[in-house]
Amino acid sequence: MSGRGRAVTTNSVLLSGLLALGLLAGCSGSDLRSPGAMEQYSAEEIFQRGEFDLERGREDDAAFYFGEIERLYPYSEWAKRGLIMQAFAYHRDQDYGNARASAQRFLDFYPTDEDAAYAQYLLALSYYDQIDEIGRDQGLTFQALQALRVVIERYPDSDYARSAILKFDLAFDHLAAKEMEVGRYYLKRDHFSAAINRFRVVVEDFQTTSHTPEALHRLVESYLSLGLTEEAQTAGAILGHNYRSTEWYEDSYALLTGQGLEPRSIGNNWLSAIYRQMIRGEWL
């Protein structure tokens, strides 16, 4: 075939594709969603319609078209591309349940595909983006942490691992903030034992978060209120060793010295064990 003949053929194919996309774009959503309406179009044409709607902010319609590819052309390369785009479209539409379902289906069908890392990241985001105010139930935060951990551990070299680490740290901090809020609630009502339990969780389980210094100070307050001076002094010692420059240490130091005490590890309690492990490196 001559070069001119190939050019004419190529242009004809391109024109046919553009005309098909034009017909798809010109049809109303209700017409295309009617039974059998999509079966006359190729997988590529349906994919292009999904992209068309996505670019125009019609995420729900886009998700529908991407899903139609999987239905009409299962196990094709276009079905695979459509599935990950469907998860993206649902997530952008804040339809997090369907976003998770599409992302999980992609992972089930194509676990070794190069887009698997992105599918797992989208799945994690579908939890993370629903994390609510500190005062609400934090079940979604736990689920976000679990899903983000999978991204970090299973796809450490992917483009999404760094973002997953940052979001993991923020979600982790969010859980610590929840414990602190509840602890403060109990402390203000003089329920010191209940408050101590919450602050202890922060010190033991969320040591790397920004809330640890305040948790140690609140433990000083709570233990002094109960007359448990050894625990209060030890909490102050840990605070002084790790967070001496903070306002929380200054306040704890003032509380302790105001009662003739000093920040130092004393006695044999859970805080003493943490002091030995954290500061002296004694694990037994």
UniProtKB/TrEMBL annotation:
InterPro entries: BamD, BamD-like, TPR-like_helical_dom_sf. It is a lipid-anchor. Keywords: Cell outer membrane, Lipoprotein, Membrane, Palmitate, Signal. Residues 41-235 form the Outer membrane lipoprotein BamD-like domain. GO terms for cellular component: cell outer membrane. GO terms for biological process: Gram-negative-bacterium-type cell outer membrane assembly; protein insertion into membrane. Its main location: membrane. The keyword Signal applies. It is found in: Cell outer membrane. It comes from the Bacteria. Pfam families: YfiO. Belongs to the BamD family. Part of the Bam complex. Part of the outer membrane protein assembly complex, which is involved in assembly and insertion of beta-barrel proteins into the outer membrane. NCBIfam families: OM_YfiO (TIGR03302). This is Outer membrane protein assembly factor BamD. It comes from Salibaculum griseiflavum. The gene is bamD.
